[in-house]
Amino acid sequence: MNSSKHYHSLDLFRGFCGYGVAFCHIHAFIYNNTHLEYFSLLFVEFFFVLSGYVLYPQLLRITNHKYNLFIFYQRRWIRTLPLYFICLILVSFFFDQLWSKDFLKYLFFIQKIIPDNVSNDYYFVAWSLSIEEIFYLIFPVFLILFGKKNIFKKILFLFFLILILKFVLSNYTNSNYYRTGTLFRFDAILAGFILRHFQEKLFNFKFYSLFLFIILIYLYYYSESYILMNQEDYSVKIAFIFLLQLISLLTLSAFLFIEPIMKFRLIKNFSALISKQTYSVYLIHLILIYLFEKVQFVFFNKVFIYILSLFILSTLIYYFIENPLLKKRIKLK
Questions:
Q1: Would you say 71 and 271 are in contact if contact means Cβ atoms under 8 Å apart?
Q2: Using CA of residue 253, residue 214, residue 11, residue 181, what is the dihedral sign?
Q3: d(CA 106, CA 247)
Q4: Deepest of 20, 112, 159, 204, by most Cβ within 10 A of its Cβ?
Q5: Is residue 2 part of a domain?
């Protein structure tokens, strides 16, 4: 595995995920399209596998040099926290929740630690950030405490331990918390680690991976009614999470398979651009949806204006807020 190689196909995948969530949500919340709301669950799930895949080599460096732990925290927090805090304040002000108890829970990423922990889940997309932030706070310490030998075996052990606990606890929580609970979803990021570890072998099974991907997407689409009607059943809760994770792994794999075509400059530049926009697209798209609910466009389609606004705003946010901060990050040793 070449841990230093930059995969331009993953830039495209990251942008695909961000705009996929945004596109599904405007249709779900303004046009009441339940089918696209159902598919938005997939796009959010993709982010976990991608995070694990991309950051796996960085986390392994922590075991080689413990000082990298503090550099890792600094890099992650500079990347994620400033823009999140800005957007959280804006959304909280919009909903008159600034400095409320729920606001403070969002602020410290604990809104999904236990079921029904917030009375008003007004910034609901933050659940995925809570999983990411708390995982990357805890997991590097786990790596250091258990030493640098047999790292991957320890990751596999932790992955299957979480799966077992989810089997045991499935009957004690509702389906929403089972999918979004902070401590319930660490396995989604670990799945990205596992994919990165077996990446070279994966390329020997391109045809089978793509074939399975098509079958599972077909299954996901046509099982929507059954899953939603029986979402609190023990077996359905477990099977649905497995289905999300398998499709996520196979979708990321499919993007890796198209890396050879990313050499074309136009595709590469477009992928890099939407990749830079992704984090702000994810954070601000709900703000635009809240505003667009109150506005009527006579000459243009509302979705077109929404996507265009996201494209412009997220580009400005990246170059004037995110990028200056990213330049201050220290590199891992």
A1: no
A2: negative
A3: 29
A4: 112
A5: no
Measured CA to CA, the distance from residue 10 to residue 7 in angstroms comes to 5
The pLDDT value recorded for residue 326 is 92
Q: What is the mean pLDDT of residues 33-47?
A: 95
Task: Look up the domain containing 221 and give its range.
Answer: 8-326
Residue 333 lies in a domain: no
CA gap 236, 260 in Å, rounded: 38
Please give the Cα distance from 122 to 42 (Å, whole number): 21
Q: What is the pLDDT of residue 4?
A: 61
pLDDT digits (tens, 9 = 90+) for 176-218: 999 999 988 999 999 999 999 988 888 888 899 999 999 999 9
What one-letter code names the amino acid at 320?
A: F
Alpha helix ranges (H) inside the chain: 8-29, 34-64, 68-94, 101-107, 126-145, 151-169, 175-180, 186-197, 199-202, 206-222, 224-229, 234-257, 265-292, 302-317, 323-326
Q: What is the pTM of this model?
A: 0.93
Supply the DSSP string of 261-288, one letter for each residue: GGGSHHHHHHHHHHHHHHHHHHHHHHHH
pLDDT in tens, 50-63: 999 999 888 888 87
d(CA 25, CA 36): 7
Count of C-beta atoms within a 10 Å radius of residue 137: 13
> In this structure, which amino acid lies at residue 25?
H
Tokens of 307: 């996507």
pLDDT of residue 1: 45
SS3 state at 2: coil
The answer to whether residue 332 sits within a structural domain is no
Q: How many domains does the chain have?
A: 1
Residue 133 falls inside a structural domain = yes
pLDDT of residue 199: 85
Instruction: Say whether pLDDT at 2 is over 70.
Output: no
What's the CA gap between 47 and 53, in Å, rounded? 10
